Amino acid sequence: MAKIGINLSTGSLQKQEMIVGIDLGTTNSLIAIIHPESKKPVVLKEHDGTALVPSVIHFADSDGVIVGDKAKDFLVSDPSQTIFSAKRLMGKSYNDLYNHAKLFTYKIIDDGTESLVKVQVGERFYSPIELSSFILRELKSRAEHILKTPVNKAVITVPAYFNDSQRQATRDAGKLAGLDVLRIVNEPTAASLAYGLGMNREETKMVAVYDLGGGTFDISLLRISGGIFEVLSTNGDTYLGGDDFDRVIVDHWLALLGITSTKLNTSELQSFRLMAETAKKQLSTTDEFTGEIGIQRITLRREDLDKLLQPLVEKTIASCANAMLDAGLEVGEIDEVIMVGGSTRVPVVMEAVAKFFNRPVNDNLNPDEVVALGAAIQADILAGNNKDFLLLDITPLSLGIETMGGLMDVLVPRNSKIPSSASRQYTTQKDGQGSMRISVFQGERDLVKDNRRLAEFNLTGIPGMLAGFPKVEISFLINADGILVVKARELRSGVEQSVEVKPQYGLSDKDVEGMLTDSFSHAKQDMQVRALVEAQTEAKILLDTTENFLAKNKKLLTELEFSETDSAMTNLENLLQKGGKDEIQTAIEKLNDISRPYAERLMDQAIGAAMKGKNIGAKNQ
Ligand code: ADP
Ligand code: MG
To answer: Which of 34, 153, 232, 434 has a 20 to 30 A CA-CA distance from 99?
Structure first.
């Protein structure tokens, strides 16, 4: 493990070290760097010239994990063990995905709660963070192979609308893959950087970034001024992209051939899909496509494709109009329109966007690569190589609080600019809980016991409420002098308490270095402990709520329902102490499966609410 050098006053890292830029996409991912000689951003390519790594993970029976093109083949032959679109799951609960559940051919766990989703593959459960880390690990190892040097630091891009927990999940995925994530950058910001926008500190520009990928569409409006990128508005559709283009082409062909799609098996359907994608791509540069499926000759003309895609393209334009409205901008005020994502190569898309914004679009750079290229530029700025950019003061270590099971919940990630602020809501775990202990920590490890304790205080006077009802907002504010103010406020009653600390007090460069190094050498182990603690916490809460539920509603259950519940609870209780996370998770699923039917039948709001929300440990009460 290499030592990580960090200059505390500037936050810059030791020079000469390669920092890569990563576009972690829903459909495809890739890496770019600043070329050491040309000083220009370039994407890393394999010998055969491919740069894109499909964001697909296949879990082979032999315990092996395959990522990329090879994994893609298993989408047809082994869909339940092959994960795509993991990015869509980041920071999501099952309830968030409910309406789109049928799109996923693998098993997403339905907890019926607000807790984060997990994916079940055989006997194992994976968090979206773990899934993304497999992709990042593959990218890291490809980069190391191509560059013939260790790659330990990265800038990773995320959509502008990603919330705090989705960003944190992306950081965690990086850490788990052995990458020090120096900065999470918005995709539209990265794309703008790749086009050289923001490099001139004197000018102010309004930029529209139109990003149409494989499964998602985003429009972001940015104001770039004095080197600062401000997102004015975002809009889009998280379920609209090139895959939908392929689908309408398949439907068109099947209609022409008089075939109903339900008559086709998955592999036949998949052949049509692949052919549709080929046709679509070819028609981005030609007027006519001809292909064969079996003995069937199929064709598609540009003008027919244009008609087929028109309704989908119009949807994206409606989103653009909404984004403009939200930002309070007129079309004439937009200075640049940047095209991002493979699907913007489709001529009707380009034409429609140019028409809407009433100006030519910027598509000089490869739309697949532009986000990664921008990430590489951002990485170079952070490395201190770009003298045009001033480095701001940053927090050298993450700041957060202790949550149930002694876990660290980060509010301000390391490398955040100073001044900075963040807040998050928590709730109580016990009925009538009148106080809550807030423990503030600094560091990168998953368990607070391995981090540095900065402060501790009690929020008292919370009026008696059922567990899950109080809304305690914890806010962190770091001012320009590096003083951290932590405030806890129960929003229903207004009771509040706060504390002030200086996180950097008594902390040497060497300490920071040591803490960072430790967090990398323990990343895997920490993640496992975290997953176990989270499973245990989930189990405890489920046992508590089920018990409460039974106490109130027992007579409304059938005898069989009760006895099955009772034995599932006993099983879970036993596993709580000595079981592994997958065993506990399986037992949770079992208890959920048993109680779901009658809980839904009888669910009263109190229980529904009690099952929601994060809990701060009751162990300190
Ligand atoms: P994401 O950002 O979601 O990871 P990408 O930007 O890599 O996705 O876009 C992938 C999509 O771009 C796929 O639907 C693919 O079919 C489409 N695509 C790639 N090249 C072309 C092309 N030449 N013409 C039309 N669509 C294309
Ligand atoms: Mg993308």
So the answer is: 232
What is the Å distance from ligand 2's center to 429 Cα? 39
Q: What is the H or E stretch that residue 574 is in? A: helix 559-578
Q: Cα(461)–Cα(587) distance, rounded to whole angstroms?
A: 37
Among protein residues, the one with the nearest Cα to ligand 1's atom 19 is 342
Q: Which residue has the higher pLDDT, 380 or 506?
A: 380
Q: Are 164 and 424 in contact (CB under 8 A)?
A: yes
Tell me the angle at which helices 302-327 and 242-257 cross, rounded to the nearest 10 degrees.
150
Residue type at position 489: R
pLDDT given for residue 327 in this prediction: 92
Residues lining ion ligand 2 (Cβ < 5 A) are: 25, 213
Cα 579 from Cα 187, distance rounded (Å): 41
Between residues 198 and 331, the one the model is more confident about: 331
Question: Could you tell me the maximum CA-CA distance found in the chain, to the nearest angstrom?
Answer: 77
* Higher-scoring residue by pLDDT: 7, 471: 471
Ligand 2: centre distance to CA 370 (Å): 9
- Which residues in 237-264 are b (16+ Cβ under 10 Å) and which e? beebbbbbbbebbbebbbeeeeeeeeee
> pLDDT tens for residues 84-100?
999 999 988 887 887 78
Residue 105's pLDDT band (cuts 50, 70, 90): confident
124: β partners: 121
Q: Which residues are catalytic?
A: 23, 87, 187, 211
Report the share of the chain in percent with pLDDT over 70. Answer: 92
Ligand 1 binding pocket, CB closer than 6 Å: 25-28, 213-216, 241-243, 277, 280-281, 284, 341-343, 345-346, 368
**DSSP codes of every residue in 81-136:** GEEE-GGGGTT-BHHHHGGGGGG-SSEEP--SSSSBP-EEETTEEE-HHHHHHHHH
3-state secondary structure labels for all residues of 59-82: ECCCCCEEECHHHHCHHHHCHHHE
- The 3 state secondary structure assigned to 429-497 is CCCCCCCEEEEEEECCCCEHHHCEEEEEEEECCCCCCCCCCCCEEEEEEECCCCCEEEEEEECCCCCEE
| Distance between CA atoms of residues 333 and 23, nearest Å | 29
The span from the CA of 189 to the CA of 156, in Å, is: 12
What phi and psi values does residue 258 have, to the nearest 5 degrees?
Answer: 70, 35
How many H-runs (helices) and E-runs (strands) does the chain carry? 16, 26
Q: Identify the structural domains of the chain with CATH numbers, from first to last.
A: 5-195+370-382 (3.30.420.40), 202-364 (3.30.420.40), 399-521 (2.60.34.10), 549-620 (1.20.1270.10)
Considering the chain, what is the average pLDDT of its residues?
88
Contact between 182 and 153 under an 8 Å Cβ cutoff? The reply is: yes
In this prediction the pTM is 0.76
| Calculated CA dihedral for residues 9, 11, 16, 22, nearest 10 degrees | -170
Query: Separation of 340 CA from ligand 1 center, angstroms?
Result: 10
Q: How sure is the predictor about 444, in pLDDT bands with cuts at 50, 70 and 90?
A: very high
The closest of 119, 147, 150 to 57, measured between CA atoms, is 119
